[in-house]
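hey can u run this one w/ zinc ion bound, need the structure tokens asap thx
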Amino acid sequence: MISATGTVYLLHFNEPYKHARHYVGWAMNVRRRLAEHDAGHGARLLAVVREAGIGWQLARMWPGGRARERQIKRQGGHARHCPLCGVKPRRLPRNADGSLSRSRTTDTQKSAAGVMTAAQLAEHTALRRGAASGKLPRPFERGPLAADPWAIRPACPVLASPGGAS
Ligand SMILES: [Zn+2]
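ok here u go:
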């Protein structure tokens, strides 16, 4: 569903660069694009941010195409949409610590409140894990992992028939 039109993503800079604290981009393959950004390619702003020694984090993703990207860029005020800047949705079930209750809100409520839905969170977490370890998840194009070679070895005959030597 998401891959039909791509994904708009919001990057939050760990420190502001001049007046910029965020970058909004669009990609068909966010994972690949983030790896490019990480290497200093794909966006001039991110290249200079990198040169300034400032790190960034994937803050949020929206399913959508180029039009959605333009709409979000035009709206400006990215901090209002950025969970890392402390977006606090109102009038929804809260946990004791004040955070939005993920278990007591629907995906629609999460989406309207600017909090990632369950599916977005899962994808986001997977991407963050890949970024944190410096190792990207296996690309889909490469297909499933080969079967474990040890699993298909014939069982050891001695172990397979204990007591056969009497
Ligand atoms: Zn932010």
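The chain has six helices and three strands. anyway lmk if its weird
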